[in-house]
């Protein structure tokens, strides 16, 4: 019981106001509450106007202790420093994700020796995905929330219920102080002064012989606005990882083909891909004549289709509707309802799409007609003149395995080969087998004629022949697009914008307050600002000059830089 | 080069010499206070105004350089190291002008103008021709990002100048107390670092004027599953090679001071062709830095910190502290917007990801975290005066590492190489 | 007042723990959205060689082995007999083996299946949708999916008969 009484006594000011535990300066009159503090002449600690922070309590329990830990600026600074140092470590060697295809367990050792090996073993090759780094970020996030909550409410309270008449000690122990006699009657002086102070944009409150002037209070919310922005930013970054909010894939689009974008209802057609280089005279002298090429433009003319029917049924042809057209360039992605396509890479190797060979009599040269042979998903049966061709086998990248059997070496149509069974006049009843290589180079390389002769026990009287390039359909190039969906991005930007707003509020304006009181013809003036003391001194000197008090700006400084 | 670009380069050179003149005039304004038969205050004011006038004229000419190069080159000149560094030097002058107009401290010119001069000279080390832009750089977001970031960083440069001045003003250079000795030593180290940069520039220009060149070739075998392909690269040394690239052959060697071959080879972990050259440059910089520092010490006949501190007599240290903090307070939001937010927007537009933990990005974040820590320490933990001045000095070092060091050291030693 | 403040504190701290825990686990597991062991097997809609459309849901309640393969990929070809043998062994015990071909023509696949005498269901993935959603990079890759639709094991590279048998045993007993 006694103890409680003492605790009460300690936080009760002589002006009669009862302050919460942890208060430094009386919430009402600003008088220091500690006996010791009252005897000192040091400049007052004006942080949060001397209010108790939310977390300061008489008997902290476990929850309070955790709360206090995160509400400490000291801890916050430690966490900032640790994050800073951690980030530095991650830049010593390149991170794993900068390489597309490496085995990190051997790469670091081979490339950077023992140091690289240690780097990898310590997990620094993926610093920014490591648990401790994320934990640091999470703790900074926690600190942002708790620090702000802990301070913004007391500060708000302190600033909304300010007393005009402050304790004299509160004024004389500000960083900017003026004391001196005034000639006018106190009330009149205060009234005249308030006119001049108002002219400088202050809101002025007077009470008999006392005055409180204040401007740009909103600047005090700057830091909290920054913190709110950062929290939104961090949450948005976290939300990006939620399923369905994020997609990131690289897809190859051969020119002229409509291709499905996996796991979406969209299809994209690369109408044309263009790459341009700077001409020799565009290059600076040091590059000229050195065979250096500097790309100028990568452009994919793309059309986006949306599937409207038969979308998830691979047995049917989907119904597509063109929804967007865009010239995708680096720095200028396609953007359709949050689906973004970025120019990523390209390949200028032409890819054979279809050929239109003629069936020719080898001896007479008689042309029986042509048919369209698609490289991908070819038809099975063809009718050319009196002959029927049945496609039996197809190889994308023809080769022979160790048993001499034909196989395809890769899934890419580098060396397509087709095996037909041809039936018709002047051929054996069971038909002849005919291997066809549409590319001339393959025909020679794999000795098409020899194979055919061997298969049929003698030369085949017919031949498939592509007459001229007009019968060849090539896809001239392939563009690689990075297809992305990032639904949380708007929140990232909102967070960043709020941070910026807070920075501007907090740094380009300063909350300034002037208190003054006149006792027996003596003026006592104290002033406080969140920053730019130089400016407030200049302002007060100018105001006092208007009141016929000539003061040197610098003499207003009450010291206090060295706390 | 077109006429406009020529004119632009001339403007750059004239601006450079005007800054040098402004520096000398600022020195006259500060040092001449103690000359006989004059009132120190009116002397300072008069010469200070002249010096500021000259530096402002220099800024006008540098702005002319910038805009004529923009017009002549067809794109805003911030896309290579030369252009970026000269832009940064210009922004430092802008920041200096802003802060000078607020505080009217002549002494600030004595410390801020040399920063511009050094950065300009450093810019001139790099090839100056206008280069056409590769597609990923053709973005106005990039331009906004680079210019804003440089603007923010230039305020940090002013904060550095003011913070360093605060230290020179307040460190007790005559004391032999252990704590004071430590402060003195660190001030000396800052001086030495600045001298290293200057000596690097002097060395490069001296050998460039002499037309020095040696050439090495390096053949590297890269084995991928049975197939070995060997790539031969050549590297031209513009400074006499003390250290040769790792496993390289001399193509041509111009003897220097009786040295006819490199003294040693770069260690294996510096396996890039340019890593050896950069290492060589670092060795040269350190050697010439030590020589230059030694000469200055001989002239001053005392540590440079102690020699410089009398210039600051009579300056109110609190004002310097305030200027340093104010410069950071002005620069921090600009830096955040330019170096982080616009960078993220550009990265999002160009690469589809707003953040990729690329070393340059990480170092921009490190700068930001550093200055956040500075602000928290100052605002909430009362770190003012000496502590915060040291932080502003260190902070600018971090900024310069981000701008220069990351390109030279981190990117250079392992992957692609910059131009110098 | 004191009570509600405490509640607020506890709620905020709890939120931080939950969000933080989520952040750390998702980052550290580092799957980048690809399915991992223990996660749910992604659905697919694919045309089978039988001409019918097959989805993952069809196999609910059965242990499922999904093998991604291509005719050009040698280890894929080599493990086919093992897969076929296991298919024959387990087909009456609610274990299904399916092969998903990575983007080849129907004809090539049909010929191949005939040639190596594969009788387990084979599906075509011409647009590589399933390849994408299963996050396949090397072939072959085999997923062992338990009857409740969870991925029990992911095997990269060629499977031999014995491991395959073991894995299926494990899958059935899980």
TrEMBL record, chain C:
| GO biological process terms held by the UniProt record | cytochrome complex assembly
GO MF annotations, alphabetized: antioxidant activity; oxidoreductase activity
Subcellular location, principal: other
Enumerate the Pfam families for this protein.
AhpC-TSA (PF00578)
Organism source for this protein?
Answer: Paenibacillus rhizosphaerae
Q: Which CDD domains match?
A: TlpA_like_family
Keyword set, alphabetical order:
Cytochrome c-type biogenesis, Disulfide bond, Redox-active center, Signal-anchor, Transmembrane
Name the UniProt record assigns to this protein: Alkyl hydroperoxide reductase
């Amino acid at each position: 019981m006694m103890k409680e009484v003492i605790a009460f006594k300690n936080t009760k000011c002589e002006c009669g106001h009862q302050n919460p535990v942890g208060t430094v300066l009386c919430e009402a009159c600003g008088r220091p509450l500690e006996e010791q503090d009252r005897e000192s002449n040091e400049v007052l600690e004006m942080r949060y106007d001397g209010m108790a922070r939310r977390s300061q309590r008489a008997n902290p329990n476990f929850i309070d202790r955790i709360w206090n830990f995160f509400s400490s600026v000291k801890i916050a600074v430690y966490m900032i420093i640790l994050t800073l140092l951690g980030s530095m470590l991650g830049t010593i060697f390149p991170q794993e994700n900068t390489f597309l295809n490496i085995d990190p367990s051997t790469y670091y050792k081979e490339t950077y020796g023992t140091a690289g090996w240690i780097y990898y073993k310590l997990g620094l090759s993926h610093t920014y995905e490591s648990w401790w780094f994320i934990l640091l970020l999470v703790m900074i996030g926690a600190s942002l929330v708790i620090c702000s909550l802990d301070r913004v409410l007391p500060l708000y309270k302190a600033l909304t219920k300010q007393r005009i008449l402050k304790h004299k000690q509160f004024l004389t122990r500000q960083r900017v102080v003026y004391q001196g006699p005034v000639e006018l009657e106190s009330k009149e002086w205060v009234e005249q002064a308030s006119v001049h102070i108002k002219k400088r944009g202050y809101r002025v409150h007077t009470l008999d012989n006392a005055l409180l002037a204040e401007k740009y209070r909103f600047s005090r919310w700057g830091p909290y606005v920054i913190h709110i922005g950062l929290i939104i930013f961090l949450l948005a970054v976290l939300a990006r990882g939620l399923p369905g909010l994020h997609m990131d894939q690289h897809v190859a689009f051969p020119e002229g083909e409509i291709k499905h974008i996996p796991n979406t209802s969209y299809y994209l057609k690369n109408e044309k891909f263009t790459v341009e280089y700077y001409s020799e005279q565009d290059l600076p002298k040091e590059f000229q004549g050195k065979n250096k090429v500097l790309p100028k433009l990568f452009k994919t003319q793309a059309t986006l289709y949306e599937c409207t029917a038969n979308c998830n049924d691979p047995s049917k042809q989907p119904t597509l509707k063109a929804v967007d057209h865009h010239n995708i360039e680096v720095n200028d992605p396609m953007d359709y309802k949050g689906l973004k396509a970025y120019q990523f890479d390209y390949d200028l190797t032409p890819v054979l799409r279809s050929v239109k060979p003629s069936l020719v009599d080898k001896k007479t040269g008689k042309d029986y007609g042509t048919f369209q042979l698609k490289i991908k998903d070819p038809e099975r049966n063809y009718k050319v003149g009196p002959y029927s061709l049945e496609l039996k086998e197809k190889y994308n990248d023809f080769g022979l395995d160790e048993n001499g059997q034909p196989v395809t070496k890769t899934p890419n149509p580098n060396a397509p080969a087709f095996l037909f069974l041809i039936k018709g006049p002047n051929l054996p009843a069971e038909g002849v087998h005919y291997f066809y290589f549409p590319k001339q180079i393959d025909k020679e390389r794999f000795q098409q004629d020899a194979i055919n002769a061997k298969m049929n026990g003698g030369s085949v009287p017919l031949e498939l022949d592509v007459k001229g390039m007009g019968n060849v359909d090539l896809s001239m190039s392939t563009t690689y697009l990075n297809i992305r969906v990032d639904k949380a991005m708007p929140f990232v930007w909102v967070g960043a914008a709020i941070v910026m707003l807070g920075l501007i509020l907090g740094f380009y304006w300063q909350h300034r307050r002037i208190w003054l009181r006149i006792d027996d013809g003596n003026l006592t003036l104290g002033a406080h600002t969140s920053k730019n003391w130089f400016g407030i001194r200049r302002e007060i000197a100018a105001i006092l000059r208007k009141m016929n008090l000539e003061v040197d700006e610098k003499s207003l400084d009450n010291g206090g830089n060295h706390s | 080069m077109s006429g406009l670009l020529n004119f632009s380069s001339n403007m750059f050179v004239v601006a450079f010499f005007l800054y040098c003149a402004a520096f000398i005039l600022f020195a006259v304004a500060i040092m001449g206070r103690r000359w006989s038969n004059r009132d120190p205050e009116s002397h300072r004011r008069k010469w200070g105004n002249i010096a500021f006038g000259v530096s402002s004229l220099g800024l006008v000419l540098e702005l002319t350089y910038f805009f004529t190069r923009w017009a002549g080159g067809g794109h805003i000149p911030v896309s290579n190291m030369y252009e970026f560094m000269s832009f940064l030097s210009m922004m430092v002058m802008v920041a200096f002008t802003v802060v000078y107009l607020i505080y009217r401290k002549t002494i600030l010119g004595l410390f801020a103008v040399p920063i511009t001069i050094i950065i300009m000279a450093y810019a001139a080390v790099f090839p100056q021709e206008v280069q056409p832009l590769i597609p990923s750089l053709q973005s106005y977001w990039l331009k906004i990002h680079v210019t804003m970031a440089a603007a923010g960083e230039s305020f940090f440069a002013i904060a550095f100048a003011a913070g360093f001045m605060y230290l020179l003003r307040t460190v007790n250079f005559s004391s032999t107390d252990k704590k004071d000795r430590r402060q003195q030593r660190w001030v000396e180290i800052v001086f030495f670092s600045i001298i290293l940069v200057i000596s690097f520039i002097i060395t490069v220009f001296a050998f460039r004027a002499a037309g020095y060149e040696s050439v090495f070739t390096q053949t590297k075998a890269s084995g991928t599953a049975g197939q070995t392909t060997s790539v031969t690269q050549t590297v031209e040394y513009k400074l006499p090679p003390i250290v040769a690239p790792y496993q390289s052959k001399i193509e041509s060697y111009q003897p220097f001071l009786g040295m006819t071959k490199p003294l040693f080879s770069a260690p294996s972990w510096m396996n890039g062709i340019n890593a050896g050259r950069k290492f060589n440059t670092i060795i040269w910089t350190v050697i010439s830095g030590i020589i230059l520092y030694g000469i200055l010490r001989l002239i001053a006949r005392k540590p440079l910190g102690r020699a410089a501190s009398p210039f600051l007599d009579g300056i109110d240290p609190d004002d310097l502290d305030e200027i340093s903090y104010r410069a950071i307070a002005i620069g921090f939001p600009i830096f955040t917007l330019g170096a982080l937010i616009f960078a993220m927007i550009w990265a999002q537009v160009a690469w589809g990801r707003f953040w990729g933990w690329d070393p340059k990005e990480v170092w921009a974040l490190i700068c930001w975290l550093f200055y956040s820590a500075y602000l928290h320490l100052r605002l909430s933990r009362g770190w003012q005066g000496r502590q915060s001045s040291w932080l502003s000095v260190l902070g600018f070092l971090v900024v310069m590492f981000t701008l220069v060091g990351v390109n030279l050291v981190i990117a250079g030693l392992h992957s692609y190489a910059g131009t110098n | 007042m004191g009570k509600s403040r405490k509640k607020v504190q506890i709620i905020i701290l709890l939120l931080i723990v939950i969000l933080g825990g989520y952040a750390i686990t998702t980052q550290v597991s580092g799957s980048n959205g690809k399915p991992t062991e223990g996660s749910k097997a992604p659905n697919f809609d694919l045309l089978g060689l039988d001409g019918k459309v097959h989805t993952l849901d069809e196999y609910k309640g059965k242990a499922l082995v999904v093998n991604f393969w291509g005719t050009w990929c040698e280890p894929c070809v080599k493990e086919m007999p093992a897969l076929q043998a296991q298919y024959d062994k387990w087909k009456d015990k609610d274990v299904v083996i399916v092969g998903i071909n990575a983007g080849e023509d129907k004809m090539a696949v049909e010929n191949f299946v005939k040639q190596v005498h594969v009788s387990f269901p084979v599906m075509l993935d011409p647009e590589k949708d399933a390849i994408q959603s299963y996050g396949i990079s090397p072939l072959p890759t085999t997923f062992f999916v338990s009857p409740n639709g969870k991925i029990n094991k992911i095997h990269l590279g060629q499977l031999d008969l014995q491991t395959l048998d073991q894995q299926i045993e494990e899958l059935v007993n899980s």
